[in-house]
Amino acid sequence: MRYTTIAAAAALACAPFTAAHSWVQQLRNVNNNGSYVGNWGYPRGYCAKGDSCDPGIINNFLIPATGLFIDDSNVLCKDSQQKAVQEDAVKYPRLQAVPGMHIALRYSENGHVSLNGTPQEDTNKFKPSKGGTVFIYGTTEPKEDEKLVNVLKWNKEGGGGDGRGVLLGTNDFDDGRCYENNNSPIAKARAALDPSYALGQTGEGNGEFGLPCESNIEFPKNATAGKPYTLYWVWQWNTPPGLDPNRPLGKDEYYTSCMDVDVVDTFSAEANAKPKYTTPQQDDASAAVKDFADRTAIYTNAIKGEIGPYFSKNQTTPGGLPASGTPSIPMTPGPTDIPPMSSRPGLPQPSQGASDGSGNIGNGNGGVVTVTDVVYVTVTAPNNGPTTLATVAIPTSEAAPQNSSGVQSVGNAPNPTGIPQLSQRPGRQPQATVNAAPFRGRLRRA
């Protein structure tokens, strides 16, 4: 049964997982009053719903496409978005933005908000509250082969990862007002508060046309006019371990959009100006969400939100993302004064057994394998003292009881000359048994 579970999990890990999908569809400038101003802007390589293309194929990008967890081979941008070019610059141009102004990055919720908790959309099961977190990063030095794991290290100070970029904002995926026209209770309740219509048809119909979600950032004040500025929209929608029976180890799931903004000194910022560059299914929304200027998210640390082993094995803060109603379990670091296993003299390295699907490796006891190494040390005693044989039993398990004294002594023989006290030896305190024995004049290992 155990091997069947492992095989099934491996098969699921290798299968593509594309049930969910969202991507940036538009960018808008937002003035200090919260109104959308200026013209629309679009991501790289964009095509819209209603165009003669499949926007799900052109725009949607899941990371990783196969497997459970990300690694350093995963590129950040879809192949159609790796170059800083527009698919149709006349129809879907870049956004023009002024440094220090706010920007809204708009996207459809695709059922991850309005259908959450309903039988129609079971991909939301085992997922974080509020649909997870959207991280928005910026850089003036984009790469065509940009790697996701590097960008996730960028921080607000601009010093993370390789230092080429900065974290501009963290937003919950659910902005609190967005919905789709699907007759769900959430959609109807939100439409009553924020009715939405097709552009040019305001007031006509039931007001349930659908209202996109948005991520909000302040455009960097130090952006240089006349030069492009690149934005990376990264939606982290991972499944924590131990929740989904089909994926007991958890599952990474990221969706990204890559886009460029033309930095300008000024632009036409009339709130009611006739819009240009609209999509075939354009809504009539005229303002951003109310908290556009100070939005944040439940989960704001992309590294901690990572489920897989990449950052933990690279000596970065381990992952662990609480899901809705599921508290996170903090991971306590080990003592810093214990040398790594590979550098401890005389300690055998235990091998790892196969995983049981729960994330544990080894014999079913939480991944702990105890190996006892018995070392016989024979020394020449001083003329005025007895000769002793010290037998040291050293358990290599990393789960030694912390409340143990670590040393049990039998007999009253003094410590042999030249051997330091146990408290002076680096690493974990071994259990030692000291018995009187005749002098042997050699060192042997059993």
UniProtKB/TrEMBL annotation:
| DUF7492 domain segment(s) | 19-287
Superkingdom of origin organism:
Eukaryota
Name the InterPro entries for this protein.
DUF7492
Look up the signal peptide feature and give its range.
1-20
Q: Which residue ranges have biased composition labelled Polar residues?
A: 400-434
Q: Does Signal appear among the keywords?
A: yes
Could you list this entry's UniProt keywords, alphabetically sorted: Signal
Keyword Signal tagged:
yes
Renumbered residue ranges of the record's region Disordered: 309-365, 400-446
Q: Which named protein is this? A: DUF7492 domain-containing protein
Q: Which species?
A: Didymosphaeria variabile
